[in-house]
Amino acid sequence: MSDINIKITDREGITHDVVAPTDMSMNLMEIIRSYELAEEGTIGVCGGMAMCASCQVYVINDPGLEPMGDEEDAMLAEAYHVKENSRLGCQLHMMDSMEGLEVAIAPYP
Question: Model's pTM, two decimal places?
């Protein structure tokens, strides 16, 4: 089992040190849900299909994320509270190269 250490700041401004597995095909949205860092029903509303932006995060420290895909870019073009460093958590699959990732969960609509 391979784990990485990431920091997630919740919508209340509290930063959590999180250990995330890289060998379970999980994405950041699922990590946030598993640690209960966002209120039930306010994250991953579409089930991780890049169709709702409820899992939007702001990347504070990018250790080398994969480039944004077309679906993610299109969804963020229609989302609220978007910034230059916005990404969809459902599109960020946990990988060893994400060690040290720091994000803040964007406000829910």
Answer: 0.95
